[in-house]
Design a protein that fits this description.
By secondary structure, the protein is α+β, with helices and mostly antiparallel strands. It has a single domain, classed as 3-Layer(aba) Sandwich (Glutaredoxin), CATH 3.40.30. 27% of the residues lie in helices and 18% in strands. It is built from 5 helices and 6 strands, in the order βββαβαααββα. A 4-stranded mixed beta sheet has the order 4-3-5-6, covered by helices on one side. The longest helix is centred in the first third of the chain and has 12 residues. The relative contact order is 0.22.
């Protein structure tokens, strides 16, 4: 199974087939509104604004898995993101990133048997995954790695 075989529901309740992002560089990040890493929304938006016309897509997946730090409804999350950070990149509906209810996207990201590259574990909010234009998992980065990290910029710019 490829990343592009997957789908998710966006924050407005519409089905999003991920194959629409084929050919783009994709960052998938699990988000939360009440986390110490929440200010990363600003960097995510800056990165998206800078590189969206050069083929970058950031996909945010709100999750309440860690510390109950995303308690809001989809509407509350969308309002929070827009009001506080001007988020324009795609935001999905709230999902489970681990456990028995793990969303299919996160099952694919976390399991080498699915992604063909590596086993990973989302340990906290704002874990980032980089996926290339062919739907291959390239990198997994823990929460403390900022979206503007030089490894991310180099990957986006093809260096």
């Amino acid at each position: 199974m490829s990343f592009f075989d997957l789908s998710a529901t966006d924050i407005q309740g519409q089905l999003v087939k991920l194959d629409q992002f084929r050919g783009k560089k994709i960052m998938v990040v699990n988000t939360a509104s009440e986390c110490g890493y929440t200010p990363q929304y600003a960097q995510l938006q800056d990165l998206y604004t800078t590189y969206k016309d050069k083929g970058l897509v950031i996909i945010g997946f709100p999750s309440n898995d860690f510390g109950g730090q995303e308690p809001g409804t989809e509407q509350e999350i969308a309002t929070f993101c827009q009001k506080n950070f001007g988020v324009t990149f795609p935001m999905m509906a709230k999902v489970a990133t681990k456990g028995k209810d793990q969303h299919a996207v996160y099952h694919w990201l976390a399991n080498k048997s699915q992604n063909g590259v590596m086993d990973t574990e989302v340990k906290w909010n704002f874990h980032k995954y980089l996926i290339d234009g062919d739907g291959r998992l390239v990198m997994s980065m823990e929460s403390g790695v900022e979206p503007s990290d030089q490894r991310v910029v180099n990957w986006i710019e093809g260096r």
